Amino acid sequence: MEQLKVFLDESEIPRQWYNILADMPSPMSPPLHPGTGQPVGPDDLAPVFPMNLIEQEVTTERWIDIPGEVLEKYLLWRPTPLYRARNFEKLLDAPVQIYYKNEGVSPPGSHKPNTAVAQAYYNKAFGIERLSTETGAGQWGSALSMACQMFGLECRVFMVRGSYEQNPYRRMMMMTWGANCVPSPSNLTEAGKKILADDPDSPGSLGIAISEAIEDAVADEKARYSLGSVLNHVLLHQTIVGLEAQKQLEQIGVYPDVVLGCAGGGSNFAGICLPYVRDKVHGKDIAIVAAEPTSCPTMTRGPFAYDFGDTAMTTPLLPMYTLGHDFVPAPIHAGGLRYHGMAPILSHLVKEEVIEARAFDQIETFSAGVQWARAEGFISAPETNHAIAAVVQEAQRAKEEGKEKVMLFNWSGHGLVDLAAYDAFLSGKLTQYELPEEEIQRALRAIEKFPKP
Amino acid sequence: MEQLKVFLDESEIPRQWYNILADMPSPMSPPLHPGTGQPVGPDDLAPVFPMNLIEQEVTTERWIDIPGEVLEKYLLWRPTPLYRARNFEKLLDAPVQIYYKNEGVSPPGSHKPNTAVAQAYYNKAFGIERLSTETGAGQWGSALSMACQMFGLECRVFMVRGSYEQNPYRRMMMMTWGANCVPSPSNLTEAGKKILADDPDSPGSLGIAISEAIEDAVADEKARYSLGSVLNHVLLHQTIVGLEAQKQLEQIGVYPDVVLGCAGGGSNFAGICLPYVRDKVHGKDIAIVAAEPTSCPTMTRGPFAYDFGDTAMTTPLLPMYTLGHDFVPAPIHAGGLRYHGMAPILSHLVKEEVIEARAFDQIETFSAGVQWARAEGFISAPETNHAIAAVVQEAQRAKEEGKEKVMLFNWSGHGLVDLAAYDAFLSGKLTQYELPEEEIQRALRAIEKFPKP
């Protein structure tokens, strides 16, 4: 029998996260205070995040020890298996080997708990009693709900009202783990009340939900805010994925030619690729490819600029690829990829041409995802289907070039709670979104006056 | 760090299924032809099942080789991890060790593909081109859809209309794997047409769906029928679960005092317990406990009798615990446990007092399931929560007796597509079903005239 999976023993789980800030090919621009235009310091962030995570956000230490309490929770589903997609390889009939990390085996079904568990731990250790966050489709909110339950923290999740109503399973998951899931806009915050006063039927947006979650956290000194992507410490926690993959591939004597993942805010992609970015910065010949949606083409069509991380302009100005903080992406099913910006670390690496970005239309991604499900069995999250579409494209190129290629990608989550999207695709109801250049230009005008990184 | 999981290498996957018929403590009564009252022979079953599976149904060989093509598909998710539920142990604060097999890691999220893949393979090998089956909540239908796709068979699933409408995610899963999922009653069969003529809005029932699937299969010589539980060959295929568990527990030097599982038709419970039943029959001191719902208390309140396997009286008469083939269980969320009968093999072992059965109310089971989810992370299928309730009960007994106990149970599936049930429980909307004795007696009158086993 041909081997399909590589497991690591629990004793082989990595004991440290990898911090790419120790190996960046050139210095990054700092986040700026929007009022003063000066770099933000730890004290500016103290009402929002606990100091131990703020320290992690800025440290340039290469290796950060994973606390024992976090490792203990990781072991509930980690190390995750590394798979070889032999059936999909046969289907593609190209000279490729395709390996993937199955992050869908976690209780909420995605990579998100890798940082949720760590953030809950550090907040608890800092004496915090409650976390507040926002969620769109619900992957992040459900992961943080589980993590808070594990460390005895209260959890409040502001969920975009449209998703709250359309995807009830995710909020039920949060309730099952004991969290308080609130449709946003809500009457719990001034930001929410203001929106509701103007439009009592507002479906909400991720931008509004972020504003509510931050306001809710800052107003309560025993509470802090938690973010599931974009920030340096979030990417740091996700490197456990790539570090495990490196160990697993070493076990079978394989080194990839291409590392791929889908990218919305960037956390799952960073998780698999940053340990390989380190190799590349030190001279290794390897391609690193991020897949994003054509309807929200941050890296492929946006400029590298300073912009707010949220629509309501409450965060520091971050140096990143952006479509403008008031850009509203089309309602594609990959809710986790509908973000106007991109993690500053990944943005910097794209600008430095260490990472390459490509955009895929959602019909192309679901077509790849259905082929995948029929060959490999597992049904992928709509976000993950973007990575699979990139894998298909790479395989076609390998075939055309007659060149053998080893690929590694992050199968970031399963799609069992996103089946309505498959239904829409299979019954021909999915929309292809052509994004007019004017729409991007309009959104970008909102950031013209900001400093340039 | 304390170990939580035991993996088996792919090379250690069992190469044979275990057949309990070689080790039964006493002879079983045969299935009877309802017309003649004589034991059914292979030819009676030939229009319904392929001959290679009929042979497996009756063989008394102890070990049956697993075909290479089946093993290859098993490896997509098998061997499944054996977990120790340390966090749940701490919560229960009892002198127990709790181990479980995580069958939720399969693509459809349950143990069902263990037999679906085998049945699809044998049908394909026999030259069959299409399988027909029924499904209630959808676990079985989705598993068979995936298996048929893997072996290039067409698949038609008659899904009880009530579930088809209330649980759209399962039918979307079937569609994604390329199956044709039809709400039952349908206009595709005479049985369906007859029901629809009387009641165009009929919500359907498992009994009607079975009748439609059998009629559909028998009418097409290139098609056969497939059943997801109850029959000997189905239980045989599921023994891979218990055989793996035995290897994994041996690896850490553990032998269980109690083996538990939930039982509807009996397949997941048989899967984990039959290899241990073999040990017990050969003198080992071990308790084997089946958990069923109080609303459908087949083994705890029904007689051991000959009865039809389906409501429409199309199957042979099976010797089993039964509540009568026209018993209609209350609409509990554990759809997979709403079956009036029980696998003849398990029924025989209950009658011989090798296996003990206990009944649990659904509120008790969800209470156990929510505690589990908050301690262990994973959200269980409503069926699986019955096994967890039995584990809680055993732990309480161990505490009262001051006796150490090692438990092993089958965590037969996750509940991510059943979250509406958790929502009902958490918002206090779940009903406790008290089943009046008269209701059972009424249903049993329908089988009074059958021969006694």
Task: Please tell me about this protein's structure.
2 copies of one chain form a homodimer. Chain A is an alpha/beta fold. Chain A folds into 2 domains: 17-66 and 111-232, Rossmann fold; 78-109 and 239-447, 3-Layer(aba) Sandwich (Rossmann fold), CATH 3.40.50.1100. Chain A is built from 18 helices and 15 strands. Chain A has helices at 42-45, 51-58, 68-74, 86-92, 113-125, 139-151, 161-166, 168-176, 190-198, 206-218, 232-251, 267-281, 298-301, 344-351, 362-376, 382-401, 419-426, 437-444; strands at 5-6, 16-18, 63-65, 82-84, 96-102, 130-135, 154-160, 180-184, 223-225, 258-262, 287-293, 304-308, 317-321, 356-360, 405-411. In chain A, the strands form 4 sheets. A 7-stranded mixed sheet of chain A has the order 1-4-5-15-10-11-14, with helices on both faces. Chain A has a 4-stranded parallel sheet with strand order 8-7-6-9, with helices on both faces. In chain A, strands 2-3 form a two-stranded antiparallel sheet. In chain A, β10, α12 (267-281) and β11 form a beta-alpha-beta unit. In chain A, α5 runs parallel beside α6, α6 (139-151) packs parallel to α8 and α9 packs antiparallel against α10 (206-218). The mean pLDDT of chain A is 96. The interface between A and B is large, with 45 and 45 residues.
